[in-house]
Specification:
- One of its GO terms (molecular function) is single-stranded DNA binding.
- The structure is a single chain.
- Helix content is 28%, strand content 28%.
- By secondary structure, the protein is of the alpha+beta class.
- The protein has 2 domains: 127 residues, Beta Barrel (OB fold (Dihydrolipoamide Acetyltransferase, E2P)), CATH 2.40.50; 55 residues, Orthogonal Bundle (Arc Repressor Mutant, subunit A), CATH 1.10.10.
- A 5-stranded mixed β-barrel has the order 5-6-7-9-8. A 3-stranded antiparallel β-sheet has the order 10-1-11. A two-stranded antiparallel sheet has the order 3-4.
- Helix 5 crosses helix 6.
- The longest helix is centred in the middle third of the chain and has 19 residues.
- The chain is globular.
């Protein structure tokens, strides 16, 4: 398994950003080939949590109407087979909360999300935690001088668990809010300029920790959107 860090500069748009549905619906696209923008910042992948108000299944996809108290958005998840449907929709039902990761799309002038990952949410704390993260990230973009850290010279507010492209001046500041092992993992991976990322065995060896500790830390970083899987099914 290979992992990769969210980067600034050329790869800055390959981020996973926590958002509310209101933010999704207010997203702008300067022209049809441009990246979508929220708070004036390019976004690639978005993460949101809401309850399923409606769901309909066809031979090729599942359509969900998701609401989070700030609005509603249509979300589509594409299916390859009947077995694929059973696996992807397991545990998901109407009026239940779900966590979704996907990309913004527009078809026939209607905005929707193409989902790449959907999973049930069983803990209400996760819902509130997500809303706080979405707010923290949004504020860090709108007010980059918060906490005395000037834009481009010190990073985003420490409350932001997600990488804020272009707002940090160096990895030391960007990862200062992380526990020591997670910070070391991010510094190792961010130092490698390779689209395939870094194999976890390499990360573990350089960290000097046990494989279980490193893997647990990597999973935490993925859950926060700092890492994502690449060629062996991991990157960020």
């Amino acid at each position: 398994m290979h992992v990769q860090a969210n980067r600034q500069g050329g790869r800055a748009n390959q981020t996973l950003r926590p958002v509310t549905i209101k933010q999704i619906r207010e997203a702008k696209q300067p022209h049809p080939d441009a990246d979508w923008q929220i708070d004036g910042v390019d976004v690639s992948h978005i993460h949101y949590i809401g309850s399923v108000h409606n769901m309909a299944t066809t031979a090729t996809n599942v359509m969900y109407e998701i609401g989070d108290g700030t609005g509603y958005i249509e979300t589509r998840q594409w299916l390859d087979s009947e077995a694929d449907e059973q696996g992807k929709t397991a545990g998901i039902a109407q009026d239940k909360y779900v966590s979704m990761i996907g990309t913004l799309k527009k078809f026939n002038d209607k905005l929707h999300v193409s989902a790449q990952q959907i999973r049930p949410v069983d803990n209400s704390d996760e819902v509130y935690n997500h809303l706080l993260k979405a707010l923290a990230v949004s504020l860090s973009y709108r007010n980059p001088t918060a906490n005395g850290a000037p834009a481009g010279a010190g990073g985003v507010a420490s409350a932001n668990d997600y990488a804020a492209p272009g707002a940090a001046g160096g990895n030391a500041s960007e990862y200062a809010d992380l526990p020591p092992l997670e910070r070391k993992i991010m510094e190792i991976i961010a130092a490698v300029d390779d689209d395939d990322g870094v194999h976890v065995s390499t990360v573990s060896r350089q960290c000097g920790g046990s494989g279980e500790e490193v893997m647990s830390a990597i999973e935490n970083l993925m859950a926060e959107g700092r890492l994502f899987s690449t060629i062996d099914d991991l990157a960020a």
